[in-house]
Amino acid sequence: MFLKLAHTNLDVYKYSYALILEAYRVTKILPADERFNLVSQLRRAALSVHLNIAEGSSRKSMGERKRFYEIARGSLIEVDTAIGVAFGLEYVTLDQVGKLGEVIINSFKVLTGLIDKNKADND
C-alpha cells in the first residue's frame, strides 16, 4: 500500500485485488453457520492469490517467481472450487457470483500466461 513497486501496475495484481473484494462481497451472503468453514476458506484463498502474486513479483529468480505464481494459481482454483460448493449447496446463485466468476477467469488466464512466460524464460 505504501511502497510504490512495479508489480502494483500489473494486470494480474489488479485482478487479484478485485478477486479479494468480490470474494468478501460474496461471503457476506453465505449463511452464518459457514463463518468458520466456507467463508474463512474462501477469504483466505482469495487473499493468498494476491499475496503470492505480490511476493512472487519481488523475487529476482524467474524460477522463484514462477513458483509463487503457481501457488497463487492453486489458491485461485481453490476459490473457484469453494464457490462451486456454495453454489451446489444453493447458498448462492449464478447472478450473485457472476462478477466473481469473471474475475476468476481473467485472473486464471493472466496467471497462466505469467507462469508460462517464466517457464520459457527459465528454460
Helices and strands in order:
Elements: H1 11-27, H2 35-57, H3 62-88, H4 94-122
Helix pairs in contact: 1-2, 1-4, 2-3, 3-4
CATH overall fold name? de novo design (two linked rop proteins)
Shape: elongated
Mean pLDDT, rounded to whole units? 94
Structural class label: mainly alpha
Q: If helices are DSSP runs of H or I spanning 4 or more residues, what is the number of helices?
A: 4
Number of strands: 0
CATH architecture: Up-down Bundle
* SSE run: HHHH
How much is the radius of gyration in Å?
15 Å
Q: What about the largest sheet?
A: none
Number of domains: 1
Q: Which CATH class?
A: Mainly Alpha
Which short descriptors sum up this protein?
123 residues; mainly alpha
Can you give a write-up of this model?
This protein is mostly helical and 123 residues long. It has one domain (9-122): Up-down Bundle (de novo design (two linked rop proteins)). It has helices spanning 11-27, 35-57, 62-88, 94-122. The model has no long low-confidence stretch (mean pLDDT 94).
